Structure formats: structure tokens, C-alpha cells
Amino acid sequence: MLTPAEFLKYTQWSGIATLVFAVLAIAGFVFKWGIRFRLVGSTGFMVVLTGGLFALSLAPLSRTVIPGAVRYSRVYDNGGTQVVITTSPQITPSELEATLRQAASDLYSYGRFGTQAENQLTIRARTIIHPEPEISVPLYLGQVKRSLSSREDSQMTIEIYQDKFAQLPQTTS
């Protein structure tokens, strides 16, 4: 993944190319070249490209990676305060805690809305178990509650439902 410093380097090169296209466009008008309007279009495109690269050099594009987190899928999201993720039935409590932290980091967004009464994002983790053939039962293993107003939430609470892990199928190794 590119770093902001690399985007800044590309912005500089793109800025130089933009200036070259602008000089060529001006020369096209002075000497009445047939491609002068194409050069104006190319210069405009280079301006937009340079502006985009500059914007990418300002904002970090890094994603926080929590060690020990396992793969999860989002199965429900109301766009506000409630999210449900699903995990593998072979997950351990420590992996679930790391996965909930990862989901809390990944699913945080300034665009989520909450009410005055509930300004917290609740992410619940579940898995599907099959107690009998052709019967599927969702089993909620834990949840995390984090602030909707602050990216760095020091008051994040994680609950792991230890009693639910006893209902998971035991794998034989």
C-alpha cells in the first residue's frame, strides 16, 4: 500500500507534467496547432489528476490490523448503531476478542448516525451451529460497544459470552 510520502512524490511529478501540458497548450494557441483544444483537455485532466494525488498525500490510507483477529463477514448493518458479524464456529474466545476489536476499528465511520440516548455502535458476533441435520441456529458469542463520535475510543467495552462457547461443535484434531 502506498504511503502519503509516496503520493506526495507522485504529486510532484504529476505537477511537472501538468506544467508541461499547460506550456504545450499555450504554444498550440500561439502557433495555431490543430491539436490545441486536445492539449487544453489533456491539461485539464492533468490538473484533476494532480489534485487527486495531492489529496491522497494528505490523508492516511492505512488500516489498523489487530493481531489474532480472524476473518469475519458483516451480515447486518442498519447504518447507524447496530451491526452483526459472523465468524467461524471454530473460533476461540481470544480470537473473538481480537476479531471484535478489528470489526470495531473497520466499521467505525463518521457517517454513522446515533441518537442522543444511544451514541454507541454495537457490534455483535455470531456463528451458525447445526444441532441436528437441516437445522441451523444462530449463536451469539459476544459484542463490542464503541463510541460513534470518536475514532480512538478508550471506553470501548467487549463482552464475550463464555457460556455460549460450550455449545460450539468440538473439533477433533
Automatic annotation (TrEMBL):
Sorted UniProt keywords = Membrane, Transmembrane, Transmembrane helix
Cited InterPro entries: Uncharacterised_Ycf51 (IPR019664)
Q: Which Pfam families match?
A: DUF2518
The portions of this protein that span the membrane are: 12-31, 43-61
Top-level taxon? Bacteria
Put simply, this protein is called: DUF2518 family protein
